[in-house]
Amino acid sequence: MRKTTRKSWAVAAGVAGIALLATACSSGNGGGSSSETKTANPDEKVTLKIQTFNEFGYKDLYTEYMKLHPNVTIVDDKADKSDTARANVETAISTGTVTEDIVAADVDWMPELIDHSDFFADLGSIGASRWPDWKAKQATDSSGKLIGAGTDSGPEAICYRKDLFQKAGLPTDRDKVAALLGSWDEYFATGEQFMNSPAGKAGAAWFDSIGALSQGMINQLEAPFEDPSSGKITVLDANSPAKAVYDQLTSDKVLKQSAHLGQWTDPWTKAFTNDTKGAWATQLCPPWMTQIIAGNAPDQKNWDVAPVLPGGASNWGGSFLLVPKDGKHVQAATDLANWLTDPAQQAKVFVQYGNFPSAVAATTDATVTAKTDTYFGGAPTGKIFSDRFAAVAHQPFRGAHYFPINDALGKAYTRVDVDKTDNAANSWQKFETDVKNLS
Amino acid sequence: MATTSSPSVPDTVTDDQGGRQRRRVGFSQKLGRLDVKLSPYLYISPFFILFAIVGLFPLLYTAWVALHQWSLLDGEGGWVGLENFKHVLTQQYFWTGLRNTISIFLLSSVPQIIIALIIAAILDANLRARTFWRMGVLVPYVVAPVAVALIFRQLFGDPTGWVNEVLSWVNLGPVRWGSAVLPSHIAIATMVNFRWTGYNTLIFLAAMQAIPRDLYEAAIIDGASRVRQFFSVTIPMVRPTMIFVIITSTIGGLQIFDEPRLYSQTGDGGADRQWMTVTMYIQELGWRNQNFGRAAAVAWLLFIVILIIGLINFAFTRRISSERTKAPKRKKVRA
């Protein structure tokens, strides 16, 4: 008896070992077998794993797609936040393993993925003309290969508090506010006026933090951090346009208008419920920010949206769907990405969840432009953001170091504005060290 | 097969019993000796095999990575020797990280062990509903670290958290928990203490329960007060346990990551790296800057730091344990 059990254990161990080896080999050969399944018959049962983050608003669409394509099963692998998704994708690239058939990526870390565009399938079959040039460009590598299908976008407007504007003796009508804030100089001049008004004296600020404004101003530059042709880091050069933005934002005049609350921190989130003291009057507002404001202060009924961005239309944020080239069902995954980013679906997501589309046809869709938002005083947010979207002409060049440089710049602003641990010059020096450490 | 054929041998060779026996004994003895010598190693081998795979190999591989230019996405990029170490050591950030780590470690471990000792001594006394109190101290340990971090982030909110609110009642200005160096360390250390004090208390309590009661009786007869008993009987008797607690909390304290990372929304240790620990620096180098070579170099430097502090601990241990052997001697004389 004992002998047989021992023997069977040995057999079991041997089998397990062989199985381990076999799986190890098969995962290594994943790339080779994909070409066979690519041409397999379209009714074959496939399971597609898709990794998104935050809220893409795809739950109902998955169900709809599976009904349209009974052979397809979609597995929703939602990461808790964008950082986790980024880490997952980059681990996949660095180890050459494919676990997801579709991965979502934020525009901020697209440059790093474009640097490894070999890892992803060419989505050129979807057609880059679905998106405006600037959006398609964010997902196109240097050889012209489109690796990402654009999902949402973030055309910026200005959200403002009507009650605080009224208290300060400023106009409260959307278009009049827009006329007041055409350029950054006008924006800061109005801010100065606001700070000297009863509202400002009662403890209200003009904006939340200079770091938040920087997001808007940096996105208006052609090439904020790196040289588009060589990819060399230029942000520390003498004539760096980002430094000019930095100097303007850290000037005493502008700092005085800040509420000194770092974006996304707990105090910032809580401060949305403040009435006057500790509140701020204006906020850079891509469509997704309207959801955040409404979520942070559900009882505040004075927010409104003005169809303007000082310094010209620009975009903040937005995501893409990418298909790893060595996945098991590249064709089926491409079809799903194509369908999910189709204008009709993008419009549905906007109406239900508020994620603003990036496909040109969707932004002019009647269901999109007709949408109004009761939280923002019944503002025609669909129409406003559609116009803001149409006005975006270009987006800044983002090289492989965009993400860490932008992160370090954000910290530089926080040191001056929120933490007040450094003055502007010191903080810039620390930023210089950070950037030099990247190479 | 071999076992079925061997019994047939004695049947044919019946005349030479002695030789057969000798041969048999020789073989089984050999086996037995092998069994005695080898099997202990076989029994403990699973741990060491596992350790070699998940402990030793990563350690050596990290050293290998540290000597190369190594990018997160592109992999190995050529041999650079000690360049990564040189770069990291000449950088201020590594030292900032080390300062923060040691500061948070001291602010958490020292009060933690003192408080745990005191609570354990109280719990060791004859209390009503003893089990209830003993379970009570372990409750914070059961709470998930993320939940603890969320709660403490609210408490230490800057400038409008509860702690600042309470401080304002006694006219103390708002403390900048979220941007000043020392206050942020205190806040994080409080988080650590909240979680681990109860755990250490129970370990101390177990040690205290093992102290022979007659020692206390003798002390009482000698007229020792409660406090005197605590310092002269309890503390000397739990010394070995204290050494264990100090060593484990040193290792844990120097690798501190969860609490400082969860202390702010962004998890970057502060805009000016006010509470960025060494482990957080490793993560930043490796995953944000995508420079695995430098991250590996810092990981090895941290390993060396822990080793050094471990050796200091060891020296202490030896001193304390030699003191311990002296202590009972003295007692004998006294008795």
Automatic annotation (TrEMBL), chain A:
Pfam families, per database record: SBP_bac_8 (PF13416)
Gene3D superfamilies in alphabetical order: Periplasmic binding protein-like II
Keywords: Signal
InterPro entries named among the record's database cross-references: Bact_solute-bd_prot1, SBP
Keyword check for Repeat: no
Signal sequence residues: 1-24
UniProt name for this protein: Extracellular solute-binding protein
The organism of origin for this protein: Cellulomonas alba
From TrEMBL, chain B:
Domain ABC transmembrane type-1: 98-313
Compositionally biased spans, kind Low complexity: 1-16
Coiled coil residues, start to end: none
PROSITE patterns (alphabetical): ABC_TM1
Entry keywords, A to Z: Cell membrane, Membrane, Transmembrane, Transmembrane helix, Transport
InterPro entries to which the protein is assigned, alphabetical: ABC_transporter_permease, MetI-like, MetI-like_sf
CDD domains in the record: TM_PBP2
Compartment(s) of residence: Cell membrane
Recorded topology in the membrane: Multi-pass membrane protein
Spans annotated as Disordered: 1-21
Stretches that traverse the bilayer: 41-64, 102-123, 135-156, 176-194, 237-257, 295-316
Pfam families reported in the protein's UniProt record: BPD_transp_1
Entry superkingdom: Bacteria
Family: Belongs to the binding-protein-dependent transport system permease family.
Name of the protein in its database record: Sugar ABC transporter permease
